[in-house]
Structures are given as structure tokens and as C-alpha cells.
Amino acid sequence: MFYSVQTAQLRKSAEYLGTETFPGYCYVVLLPDETVKIGYSNTSETLQQRMKRLKRESEKDHGPGFEVLAVLPGGCAMEAVLHHRFYKSRIMGRGERFEFSDEIQDFLAAAPRLSLDLS
Known about the structure:
This protein is of the alpha+beta class. It has one domain. It is built from four helices and four strands; from the N terminus they run H-E-E-H-E-H-E-H. Strand 1 and strand 2 (35-41) form a beta hairpin. The longest helix has 19 residues, at 44-62.
């Protein structure tokens, strides 16, 4: 319950202020099992660490195929917006995992990306 109330408040704040006003980064990655993970990190350093850990863990479990699809401004607010927007594609019981739906692909085709070195 707390999580849904908190994310609803973030979404409303993002609608009013714009997601770009929130600090941090929201990432969208395609995992080797063909699912999409949408998460966030507060700083570029933690984002780099998170990407390395996600890649290592996902490739250990499922083999090669990890791909960063987008890094967006807005941190946890953008994450809340995207989780809500793609709720129909959410894979229940898999945390922040989503099916790589046409809706997600269409969004990514038009989404402005941040240029960050994640190596």
C-alpha cells in the first residue's frame, strides 16, 4: 500500500513539475531473457555500478544479451511514471520486470535519451 501511495504522489508531482526536474536517472534495459527492467539510480556513479551488476547477474543467469535501451532524466519520478504507463506489460512476481511490448518499444523509439558513458 505504501509503495502505491508513494508512487502515485511521485506521478502527480511529475505531471505538475515535469520529470526532468527530479534528480537522478531512470534506466530501461533489455535483459537476456527478453524482459525489460525499469529502474532508477540517484547519481551517475550508482547508475554505472547498477548497470555493471545487472549485466553481470543477468548474463550469469541467462547468457549474453543485456542491452541498455534508454537512460532518461527524472530518477524515481520517471520510474514511477513508466511503471504506471506500462502496467499492462508488468510481469507479476518479477519485481520491476515487464514484457518487451509494442507500447514500450514505441515509447523508446521517441524517448529523449541522455548520453552517458556506462562502460
